[in-house]
């Protein structure tokens, strides 16, 4: 999947402040919030709940780690920012590389492989640029846009617990694409913030960044906070069936946690796992940072929809399924 002409050399747009909206809460503020425990549980359940029963299995299996989710989001974000009259916004493979690779979540080779897979399962299309046929544009299909809307709705659902009574994310659950486009516009201006949750995860970062890392750890974190973190029992076989992940992959993940000194396995097979305080603390940093980003991102999106109709009304042409 190579372009036939040199990609645009324009650097990704720098993060743009939104002074009209208050800054994000600090991680300490979020963790001290009286609703943090309930919000954390909702956040984790959104990952722990197997979404494959509600959607395309190949597509949902592809969205199994933060890197793939970030690439998926990058493609949709660039699509919503695409202006045929501004070459720097054309969603070429080169622009995707320039925007995505600095996040440090994937190699260039793996990026090309994921793009090829997204194309093979009908989530994106490569089309010649109308203005320069040497370049190919990466456009999401309607199916990909629908999956993105569902992904956003699941991610932002935790805010209903953080700020109850505000119906945050309600428009997403109702399928309102105005807020989808506004959120992706926010993402295009605040890319540096997307790295913060994993950066704050410290030594837990390689676990969360690996395939299915968040999804596999989430049910253990829920059980730890609901009960005793020194005696969490959830068999690898059960988790493998629930998450459609191999038992070997799960065992390797927990072996790595043990090697990092973040967890102990007192019985084989996941029947008695001890999540150590450092793991719980780092996971809370990751979750609190994500919640802070979600809350401010939603506030900015609402401000855009209410004050600037361009972000609510313009949709570039999507690829056909």
Relevant terms:
4 strands; 2 domains; Arc Repressor Mutant, subunit A; mainly alpha; two-stranded antiparallel sheet; 321 residues
Question: How are the SSEs ordered, and which strands pair?
Answer:
Elements: H1 27-32, H2 36-48, H3 57-62, H4 66-81, H5 93-100, H6 108-120, E1 124-128, E2 136-140, H7 142-156, H8 159-162, H9 170-173, H10 177-189, H11 191-194, H12 196-200, H13 205-209, H14 213-226, H15 236-243, H16 247-259, E3 263-267, E4 272-275, H17 277-307, H18 309-313
Antiparallel strand pairs: 1-2, 3-4
Helix pairs in contact: 2-14, 2-17, 4-10, 10-17
Protein described:
The chain is mainly α and 321 residues long. It has two domains: 31-194 and 285-313, no CATH class; 199-281, Arc Repressor Mutant, subunit A, CATH 1.10.10.10. Helix content is 57%, strand content 6%. Helix 2 crosses helix 14, helix 2 crosses helix 17 (277-307) and helix 10 (177-189) crosses helix 17. The longest helix has 31 residues, at 277-307. Residues 1-16 and 50-56 have low confidence and may be disordered.
């Amino acid at each position: 999947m190579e372009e036939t002409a040199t990609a645009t050399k324009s650097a990704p747009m720098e993060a743009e402040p939104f002074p009209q909206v208050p800054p994000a809460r600090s991680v300490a503020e979020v963790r001290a919030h009286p609703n943090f425990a309930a919000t954390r549980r909702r956040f984790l359940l959104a990952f722990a709940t197997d979404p494959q029963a509600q959607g395309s299995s190949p597509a949902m299996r592809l969205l199994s780690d933060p890197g793939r989710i970030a690439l998926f989001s990058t493609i949709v974000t660039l699509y919503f920012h695409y202006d045929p009259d501004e070459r720097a916004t054309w969603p070429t493979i080169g622009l995707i590389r320039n925007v995505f690779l600095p996040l440090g979540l994937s190699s260039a080779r793996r990026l090309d492989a994921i793009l090829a897979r997204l194309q093979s399962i009908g989530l994106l299309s490569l089309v010649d640029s109308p203005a320069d046929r040497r370049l190919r544009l990466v456009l999401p299909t309607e199916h990909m846009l629908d999956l993105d809307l569902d992904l956003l709705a699941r991610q932002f659902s935790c805010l209903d617990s953080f700020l109850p009574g505000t119906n945050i994310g309600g428009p997403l659950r109702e399928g309102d694409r105005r807020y989808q486009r506004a959120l992706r516009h926010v993402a295009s201006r605040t890319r540096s913030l997307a790295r913060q949750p994993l950066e704050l995860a410290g030594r837990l970062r390689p676990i969360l960044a690996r395939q299915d890392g968040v999804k596999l750890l989430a049910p253990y974190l829920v059980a730890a906070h609901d009960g005793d973190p020194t005696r969490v029992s959830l068999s690898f076989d059960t988790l493998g069936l629930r998450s459609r992940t191999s038992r070997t992959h799960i065992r390797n993940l927990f072996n790595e946690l043990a090697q990092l000194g973040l967890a102990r396995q007192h019985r084989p097979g996941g029947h008695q796992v001890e999540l150590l305080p450092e793991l719980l603390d780092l996971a809370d940093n990751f979750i609190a940072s994500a919640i802070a980003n979600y809350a401010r991102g939603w506030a900015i999106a609402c401000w855009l929809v209410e004050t600037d109709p361009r972000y609510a009304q313009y949709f570039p042409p999507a690829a056909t399924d």
